[in-house]
Amino acid sequence: MNKSQRSPLPPRRSGWALTALTAVGAIATAAVLVLAGCASPGETRPQSERITSAAVGLDGGTRAPALTDRWWQSFHDEALDAMVQRALDGHPSLKAAHARVQRAEALVTSAGAAALPQVQGTFDATRQRYTENGLAPPPLAGATLSSGTLQASLSWELDFFGRHRADLEAAIGAQRAAEADAQAARVLLAANVARNYVQLARLVEQREVARRSFGQRDEVLALIRQRVQSGLDTNVELRQGEGALPETRQQIEAFDEQIALTHHALAALTVQPPNAFDTLEPRLQAVQAVPLPPSVPADLLGRRADVEAARWRVEAASKDMVAARAQFYPSVNLIAFAGFGAIGLDRLLDIGSRQYGVGPALRLPIFDADRLRAQYKGKAADVDAAVESYNSAVIDAVRDVADQIASLQSLERQQREQTAAAQAAESAYDLARQRFKAGLGSYLTVLTAESNVLTQRRGATDLKARAIDTQIALMRALGGGYSGADAAARGSAL
Prior knowledge:
- With about 500 residues, the protein is an alpha+beta fold.
- The protein is about 60% helix and about 10% strand.
- It has nine helices and four strands; from the N terminus they run αααββαααββααα.
- Strands 1-2-3-4 form a four-stranded antiparallel beta sheet, with no helix packed on it.
- About 25% of the residues are buried.
């Protein structure tokens, strides 16, 4: 057969051409898989919506009064200041909140690292006898040799569909929520210390009134005995007077019990032994009142750490849902390795033992759609739950401030009326004493008038303590001086 009759042979292709054809074929195959087999997340969407400002009455122009994060110092009480500071420095609840913040920060770092190239180094050394009846040819077959691998490998998942970015943003949202939670715990702890301190001052002053009442009733009993001996009263009045003393002693003992329990509460809040404050007897002092807004301030939500925490949880849940959606799309990894491998550790670092490689890896969910859809649906439900928790926090915050404002306004009116009643009782007591000194009235009338004075003093103490306690509650409800990183710029935005 001559040359003209021979069948033509296909032209030889160079190595790079074969590699290019292989890469094109792989890319074409991957494209077909992506287009034909990509799982779909379906039509799942969150159903809940965040509550609007107008819905909770925050569309007015009222601004919250300025508070510092050391608002309790406005009471000008060094003992209270020291107590609150000790509680903030050592209470386990704040330490636990700080630990949660640190954990959230670690998760942010971990989420950020997932988007970066990962490099690992490995070294393996093995002493092995190779089977004589296996795939290994002589002289390996039947020989006992050492083998080793020294290699560095790199992998990098390219974030084409934003999964790593969404994971990072979700972690940042969780971190900021944890930071806001820690601030909310700080405000609550300071308020609890201050309120218990005011409660202790109220009990101490009420006990003093009770002791004065006991002395008064003892004087009344002595007067009744004189009148019985004179035939002016009967044993009925005598027994009534005698029964009043145990009743008053019981009241004093009840105050002592409540004072002891409040001492213990303050000791626990400041992380001290129960008897740390056994001798503490504070007094109700004049308080520099916080300017009272006429209504719930429009910028309330940016000042409340608990609302901020709930808002950040909504953000984190939303980003988790974005990351779950990205699971439906392909993941592309770039993989490379370089190192040495040899049978015989003495040849491990020889130039001929070097090995290396590089290439992409494509992973695509095809038959895993049900699991991914279930996960995606769960993330959507998490968003709904976070939104409703946020809405609940907003409603509770607005109600909390409205309650304290209403109580303070009412207490101001009650104190005015009580002051008028106390002045009338004091005037009646002065007149009774003057009549007794002039011989125109009995001492029993004087003691009765004094009893009315003591009743008014007890009422004044209770109202004053309630006013201070409500001031503390209002400071807490207004955020306790909290100011998030972007609260000022955000204002009342929901």
